[in-house]
């Protein structure tokens, strides 16, 4: 059974006018003393970069302009821009981009190419403020994070009863039939990462067993069936005896409406919704402590051949200041990249149960496809992937 609720977006970003401009169908890059920041993130992020970060940067660095360019919807997006930056490095030319708001520097051409700046305490003053859990590679600078967590109605679930391990969660679901639901794994990250957490549980809580570059069908056949049993056992005690939503927002709406009491949800979606008044403050968040749900930090990258490299490094340092990191949490609902003690007391209290002590990951590609296919075949065979 699939539950599909109207997909109202809780937080709509502005249209983002001024965040990007086009010239002859291509991104137009810039000029002297103009730091070009490229982003493929949603409009709420590019709006924040334009309306909040840009004024702070320009005030701190008189004479410089921060130009926020949206690469969303442009052919190839940031991958193509990174390729062009590498070609410019080889040709010893201006890459016409100074700052990637989010990019994985391990993608080709990779760190060994010399394209990406290596960050550390020697060149970023505030580097020591970073929560070490957030650091994935020295060539990417974490500045905002998001992770799937448990969102719960604190008026219905007493603090002492909130599950904080997978065993406690499955026991709570069994003891409270109809009060939990998750989404289909191919329809949103909250449902997908709930299913992935079952996969990890069935494999000794060892995410390293699922390497992105070493998928085989034999491994999938050996490692996934245990998760299907876990999830089949849960199904009778889910909402409506085994219903699944068709996305992140429908799942969260069932919690907000009081229909269910606990759901998996993206941390930033809930925190931003609470901040903007779309979600009641009685909705609280908690992360599992035995092994967390999957998530990630957005990593900023700077080409070594950026025309305004020094100014881009000043921008990196700015995003790690306590003021900007507090704004990341308040405005975007993101996890701050800095340690919790650097935030105001109210934010520390709000985030105390959700700041991760680990950030498991699960590969996309073949592994993700195997999980999605296996879930439909073995857990919800009565639902078709094409069902709405």
Describe this entry's structure for a reader:
The radius of gyration is 22 Å and the shape is globular. With 388 residues, it is of the alpha/beta class. Helix 4 (189-201) crosses helix 6 (225-234). The chain is built from 12 helices and 12 strands. The protein has 2 domains: 22-144 and 299-344, 3-Layer(aba) Sandwich (D-Maltodextrin-Binding Protein, domain 2); 146-295 and 359-378, D-Maltodextrin-Binding Protein, domain 2, CATH 3.40.190. It has helices at 43-60, 77-91, 166-175, 189-201, 217-223, 225-234, 248-256, 267-275, 309-319, 322-332, 345-351, 365-378, and strands at 2-3, 22-23, 26-27, 34-39, 65-70, 99-100, 141-153, 244-245, 262-266, 283-286, 295-300, 335-336.
Keywords:
alpha/beta, 13% strand, three-stranded parallel beta sheet, globular, 2 domains, single chain, 12 strands, D-Maltodextrin-Binding Protein, domain 2, five-stranded antiparallel beta sheet, 388 residues
